[in-house]
Every structure is written in C-alpha cells, then in structure tokens.
What does this fold into?
Amino acid sequence: MNEPDSQSRMVTTSCYYDCGGRCILRVFVDGGVVARVSTDDRPVPALKACLRGLAWKEVVYAEDRLKRPLKRVGKRGSGEFEPVSWEEALNTVAGELRRVKDQYGPAHIFLMDHYGSLSPLHGVLKAGRRFFSLFGGCTTWWGNFSHEAAAFSSLTTFGTKATGNTPDNFLHSRLIILWGWNPVVTRFGPETAYYLSEAKKSGAKIICVDPRYTVSAKALAEQWIPIKPGTDTALLIAMGYVIICEDLCDRRFIETYTVGFEQFRDYVLGKEDGVSKTPKWAQDITGVTAETIEQLARDYATIRPAALCASWAPGRTAFGEQYHRAASTLAAITGNIGVPGGYVSGGVGRVPMGSLGRTLPVPEAPMPLVHGADVYDALLKGTSGGYPADIRMLYIVGCNLLNQFLNTNKGLAALQVPEFIVAHEIFLTPTARYADIVLPVSTALERMDIGQPWGGGSYFIHMDQAIEPLPETKSDLAIFTELASRLGISAFNNKSDEEWLREFTAATPDLPEYGVFKQEGVHRIPLEQPWVAFREQIEDPVHNPFPTPSGKIEIFSQTLAERNNPLLPPVPKYIEAWEGPGDLASDKYPIQMISPHSRARVNSSLFNIPRLKAVADDAVWLNPKDAEPRGIVSGDKIRIYNDRGVLVATARVDENIIPGVASMDSGSWFAPDSDGVDSGGCANVLTRDKASPAGSFPHNSCLVQITKVT
It folds into this structure.
C-alpha cells in the first residue's frame, strides 16, 4: 500500500525494461526527489529486484541523461548537437513527417520501435504503432530478437506462443534440465531462482547444458554438460534415439495427444536418410560423449515429471527453430506436457493483459514489414533490393539498433541513407548519435503504467508515478500526442494516462477494480495450484483440443510440409549451422563466439550507469587451450575479428568455457576509433545479419579469430 501523498512518501512501481523480472520497486521520495530505491521486503518467495532495478535513482539523475531536445549540427554520427526548444524540435519532426508522406508516401517512413520500454500504456511498441496507423501507415519491422525461433516452434507445434508455467511448478519436478538458461542472471521472474533452489533442496536433480559453466550452473546444478554452440538439436535428437530404441516413450501420451511420431521416429532411426542419429553420431557433432548423451536421455525419460527448460539462447542460432521443435518433441514423447512438474519450452508465460489485447489500441493501417535482420539492407537498397520502399525518414523509438542489431558496421553505412532520422531516447546512445533530432524521454519513475511479467508470474504491479518528469523530458506517448496535434490526428489520444489504465484494468478479468488495484500496489492472481500450460488439453482433450490444425501436438507439421522448404522440415531435424563448428570458414576463424546477457545490463540499457559498470563482467571468456597457443593470459588486451569487423577487449582465461568457444556479454556500447576498431566491446561488430529460415536472429552463430594485442 502506498503512503499518502506528501513531501516524504513511498511509491510502488516496477521496471519497464525488456526483462522478465517485473519486480517490486519501493521508491522513497523526499520533496519531489527520489531519495532511494528498495524492493520487496517480504520473506521469499518475493518479488525482489536485482541490481538493475535498484539502480533507478542513478538512471533518473545520471549526469549524461538527455534533458533538452537536440538538433544535429555536425556530421551524422559525430555526436555534435545543439539544444533546441520542444517547439522547434516537434515542428521540425512534424514537418518532415508531412513532407515525406506527401512527397513519397507513408511507406517511405520506417518506424524502428523496439523493446526499450515494455508496458501496456507506455511500452514503445504501442504509442508509435498507434500514431503511424492513424497517420496513414509506414514501413516497420517484424521478428523477436530474443525468441523468434521459440515462438515459431510453439505456434507450429502447439498452436500458441503461451507455453510457460508459473515458477512454483518446479516444486513438482524430479528432474530439471537448464538448457542454455542462466536464470540467476536473466531472471525470468523474481521468484524463479528461488523455486529452482527449493526444488533442488527437495531432491530434484538439476542438470545444466551450456557452453559455459554459468552462475546458475554453479548455484543450482549437480552436473554440467558442456556443448558446442549451434549443435544442441543434434544432442536432443540423439536423446530421442535412446528414448525410442530403449522403449522409454510414453506410448499412451503419444497416441492420445500427438500426430507425427512415426515420421520423427523414421528420421531419428535413419529410415528416411540412411543416417541413424545415435549418441555416437551426436558425439562427433556436439562434443558431448555418447555415454553422457545416453544417461541424459534415460534420466529425462524415467525421472518424471521432468522439466526440459530449453531456453532461448541456443535458438538464437542459424537453425535455432529446429532446437526448439526438438525439445518440444522430447517433452511430448515422454509425456512431460500439461502435468505438474513438466515443462513446455518455447514461447512466453501466461500474460493475461497482453494476450487479451488490453493495451493501447492500434488501428489497422498499411504497414509493410521488413525482418529485423534485413533492416540495414532495406535502408541501403530500398526498392532495388526488393524492399517495400526507399526509406527517406527513419523514426526510432526505444531502440539502440546500431548496437543491438546484427552487423554493426553495415549499420553505420545504412544510417547514412535516410534524409532524416529522429530518435526518442534517455541517453545519447550509439544509435542516437546518428539522429537529426533527439527527443528526451521520461523514465518509469516519472509516469504511471502497469507491470506485467512475461516469465510466468501470476501478478500485476501498479506502476505509480514517483516524481514529475525532469524538466524538458516527455513520455513517448506525450511526444506522439503533441505530434498528432500538429498533424491533425485528433483521434490519437483522448484520455489521460489514468483513464487508459482504468480501461485496461476493467478489461482484464484477473484484476480488481482500478481503485482497489492502485491501492494494493501489487495484485496477486489467486491460483489454487501452479499454472501449467496445456493442463486442460491433457486432462480433457475432447473438449479442449490444441489450437493446431489437427487439434493435437504436431510433431509432424502439415503446415510446414505444405511449405516444401527443406530448411523448415515438417519434423525437427539437425541442420548444420553456418558459422558453426562444421563451417568451412572455421579454418580461417576457428573460434565460435557467443554473446549472452550481462548481469549488469538489460540488453544495452544501463551500460552507462557507473554503479552497474562496476559489477559487469565485460572480459572475453577464453579456454586455456585456446589462450595458451596465442600467448594470452587473463587481463591481456585481445583483438577479435572476422570479415565484418574488429574489436579490442580484455581476456579472461577460464576453464569454465569449453575449448573453441569465446563468450562476450552483449550490450556494451559501440565505440569505434578512427580506424573503425571498436573499443567498446559491442559483440554485434562481429555478427552476421542473416536470419534463420523461420526468422531467428542468430547472434550465437558467429566465427571469429582472436590474437593478443602487442
């Protein structure tokens, strides 16, 4: 409960970052200024914030926070700006929008909104889409950078992206496999690590499959199975071989709830292509011994219920959708779906407000789509490259694309193409430096909204406004409202923030009346038992079919069969990844580089906050077997390069990563020198801008060479 409004008060809110945590923040305000930020003080399980959430005071009052609109005065990308009034900035932006629309058509404006802020009202994917829909349309993007492969797999296999459980379901698991998942760092709900720890205390066996021995492996797992990046599908399919050959399948479950097992079995046993997918076959691909694969398969099939938590990182590879489909298939053939303690990997958890569309409404309008991996090519080539339009204006909201999208150096060229670029930002990010007008936005502590977890949590947080926006800053919604007024779009925003939130709340069955919700601050959805995805389909399949064409779990997808694309086969298959360990380019670039999330950042957000930089691990992990021949020891400056770019970083020589692999946390800001060599540690200087066949962003399919800087 919030204390009465006064000079000294406490406000309940939450983060809006692209993070599945959605934790409670207690913001203490004195005289209109944030005095300190704390979190949930209840005993665990509680919605306790991590270091990133507790750093909000430093974000709000950061010395380098943008506090005035900026107009570019130097060469694009130079970072040379002068402050201008809001009146001049908004008139300029409105004028450019009108000019491009009238002269070329709305498709020549590209809206590059993204996940810098996630919430139903002020989430940047809401206000911009609504504005441009009412403006007459624009060109924009598609594809989820985190889980496009998982979403594709979930839709193809189960007919929905909502495949997650509440984290208390782990208390019912006897075996938990953390596959490419580091929940102590990436969170996926503030309660998740607690429930995993409690499951371990209760006797659950926890295994970690990952190229790195992570913090989560150390804290939770009793076994670490190191694996080469991009080969996870081969390991899963070899597990399927053992389960099938040793008759460990759940025959009743397969017959009742699935279609296509026979076709998958024929592929696994080699009847389709003459290659038996044995553990020995997978050993040569993955680096995991055949004996380990056999035991992992037996454990998963017999220690039930079991949770195979196939996380998103291995799906961010060249054929990542096959990894997710294979994991879902193993869950199906062992009967670990729709039961307490089981787990269905893939999409997101149960997010009632978002899934029911209770957010800022977006009218339909012409919006040609470009995949996120093709954005730079769309800017560079336009209609000559087969894209919808020649982009004259780029409108960026909540997106540090130059830093976070694939192939940063191609992005440098692409951002020189538009005639005009506008960016909404809190800080002068590497991307904002390329804008012609930069509009300073407010933060989560300076506005109202609703916090909703996408990691399976069963609660909502009322995000109360702690302080007034810093002078000369505005919310994205307020900016678009003012632009709409200048452009004669009268229907854009006819409600106050609180009126919108009342409407959202009233339309969400899990929430009480808005006044009650606001007074509560945090509303827990009462559940008699853990939420388990597909429980209804398994308990009563006649009345609750799966939302697939067959009404069942589709191990064999007729939809994919009709596409007739060998790179998207109807049953999950191992397809060797480009820039994986078997790529011919590995002769020249022998190290596979992966770029996991940092404990000190949310993607690239928070990179510039000193309190968090102090706890970041921005060294490059390298196994001694790779470091020693190169004369590299911990602390050395190293040069990492391929045909796409070069960066300089610091080495961390460590046994906790397998040979042949380097790990560099993502999100550090791009900082090139005069020769174009990045000293900021931006991993995407090295990544390839090519999507997987289903649209995954393969950040973790990246071959490099590493040398010592002398």
In short: Residues 149-349+532-563 form a domain with the Dimethylsulfoxide Reductase; domain 2 fold (CATH 3.40.228.10). Residues 1-5, 353-357 have pLDDT under 50 and may be disordered. DSSP finds 24 helices and 26 strands in the chain. The CA atoms of residues 617 and 690 lie 28 Å apart.
